[in-house]
Recover the amino acids of this structure.
């Protein structure tokens, strides 16, 4: 089984966090990409933006909500609330039903 390192994209496009939503959408379209890391003025990754984020913002309105586990954290960030463990598939499923 290959490792993530073997299949990753080593040279990737980043976008600066001060760009407008339409500018980022234009970059995604021109470069045929579906998302990119968001960087600050020093080049530090501060987030991630995707086509689905843009679609949600434009058509639904507002910023898409993210489960706590999917949020990108800056180095040294300390979580203020304890992590809640997801139920395993076995815990979610009974003999007759399965909830995902």
């Amino acid at each position: 089984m290959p490792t993530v390192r073997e299949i990753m994209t080593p040279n990737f496009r980043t976008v600066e966090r001060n760009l407008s939503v339409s500018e980022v959408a234009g970059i995604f379209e021109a470069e045929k990409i579906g998302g990119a890391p968001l960087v600050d003025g020093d080049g530090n990754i501060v987030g991630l933006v995707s086509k689905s984020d843009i679609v949600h913002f434009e058509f639904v309105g507002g910023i898409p909500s993210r489960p706590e586990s999917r949020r990108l954290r800056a180095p040294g960030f300390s979580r203020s609330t304890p992590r809640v463990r997801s139920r395993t598939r076995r815990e979610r499923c009974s003999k007759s039903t399965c909830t995902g």
User: Anything to note?
Assistant: The longest helix spans residues 21-31. The mean pLDDT is 76.
